Amino acid sequence: MAADRIVVGSAGDDTGARTIARRLRDEGHEIVFVGGRQSPEQLAATAVAEDAVRVVVDAGSSDAQRVRDALHALGAGDITVEPAV
Q1: What is the mean pLDDT of the chain?
Q2: Residue 8 · residue 42 · CB < 8 Å
Q3: What pLDDT does 1 receive?
Q4: What does pTM read for this prediction?
Q5: Based on the structure, what is the number of domains in the chain?
Q6: Is the predicted pLDDT of residue 4 greater than 90, yes or no?
Q7: Quick check: 76 pLDDT over 80?
Q8: Which residue range forms the structural domain that includes residue 59?
Q9: Any idea what the CATH number is for the domain that residue 72 is in?
Q10: Residue 68 DSSP code
Q11: Residue 2: its pLDDT value, please?
């Protein structure tokens, strides 16, 4: 079975996103790490370009919703978005 491709990024500093990316990688997922200071539109565009199934945002739930909105605008509302925990 192929690993899920997950985009991991942050609207702010990328320290937390790096930790999340490592954890998901260690769980067997394929990670596309885009770092920090990413806009919701940048995260959405990367998810579409990389054919990701999920985006994990190291930010608040309002930022996650903005990524969802950007994905819907790109016709990619099937990509799951979640704030990091």
Answers
A1: 93
A2: no
A3: 53
A4: 0.93
A5: 1
A6: yes
A7: yes
A8: 5-83
A9: 3.40.50.280
A10: H
A11: 67
Strand, helix or coil at 70? Answer: helix
Region of 7 please: left (phi>0), alpha (psi -120 to 50) or beta.
Answer: beta
Angle between helices 40-49 and 61-73 (to 10 degrees): 50
What is the radius of gyration, based on Cα positions, of the chain?
Answer: 11
**According to the 3-state scheme, what is the secondary structure of 11-64?**
CCCCHHHHHHHHHHHHCCCEEEEEECCCCHHHHHHHHHHCCCCEEEECCCHHHH
pLDDT (tens digit per residue) in 48-63: 999 999 999 987 778 9
Amino acid, single-letter form, for residue 5: R
DSSP 5: E
**Is residue 67 within 8 Å of residue 76, measured between CB atoms?**
no
The answer to whether 5 touches 32, Cβ cutoff 8 Å, is yes
